[in-house]
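Students often ask why we bother encoding 3D structure as a string. The short answer is that it lets us treat folding as translation between two languages. Here is a chain of 91 residues written in the first language.
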Amino acid sequence: MSHVIHNKDKLLARVRRMKGQMEAIENALIAEKSCGEVLNLAASVRGALSGLTAELIEHHVEGHILAADLDEKARQTGADELLDVIRSYLK
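And here it is in the second language, the structure alphabet:
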């Protein structure tokens, strides 16, 4: 997955921010914060995860389906991988 390697620092920064957001949820629960505060924190994590997922999908399509140097078998493999992920995501 060369696209992940090329974007590794950016992707890791996003994951680390999400980790911080998850810790904020944990701390809010421990501190017995209001439901509204916890829900807002959870919505933030969901948004961050959706953004990360969208970026990974975009890079996968560009690198494993649309890239000019791929043969038909590689394109089909890339498409199959993406469809498997989408099926899992939609369950």
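Translate back mentally: The helical segments are 2-6, 8-30, 35-64, 72-90. Keep this in mind for the problem set.
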